[in-house]
Amino acid sequence: MVEAWPQEFREDFYREHDLPLEPERTPPSPPRVLASFASPTSYNSTGEHAKNFLRYVRNREKPLEDAVMGHKAAAVAHLINLSLDQEKTIRWDRTAERIAA
Questions:
Q1: Which domain holds residue 90?
Q2: How far is CA 52 from CA 60, 75, 82, in A?
Q3: Does 68 reside within a domain?
Q4: CA R_g for the chain
């Protein structure tokens, strides 16, 4: 938590508590699994997806999950992975659909 403080506050805190300015970092512990899900072995998600897609095309219906929704869901997943990989917060500009500076 101290790492999130402004540098001046952080340095004052370390000095006040007689700590080194660059503390050793311990590697993060593996994430806990809070829940898990397994579909039935007979379920074929690709087949179901294709079947639903073709039904919507045939009936000229708007799908429940269109390409825009798929794009947004994938973007969030990619941003999470990027944040974890870089070990930092990623700020996303939803309007421009770009990583904010």
A1: 64-101
A2: 12, 23, 31
A3: yes
A4: 23
Query: Is residue 94 one of the residues assigned to a domain?
Result: yes
Q: Which two tokens stand for residue 66?
A: 């269109």
Average pLDDT, the chain: 84
Q: What is the amino acid identity at position 76?
A: V
Mean pLDDT, rounded, for 59-87: 88
Average pLDDT over residues 8-34: 78
- In the chain the first and final C-alpha atoms are separated, in Å, by 22
Please say whether the beta carbons of 14 and 20 come within 8 A: yes
pLDDT (0 to 100) of residue 31: 82
Dist. CA 46–CA 77, nearest whole Å: 19
Q: Do the Cβ atoms of 89 and 83 come closer than 8 Å?
A: yes
> What pLDDT score was predicted for residue 2?
60
Counting the structural domains of the chain, the total is 1
* Overall pTM surpassing 0.85 (yes/no): no
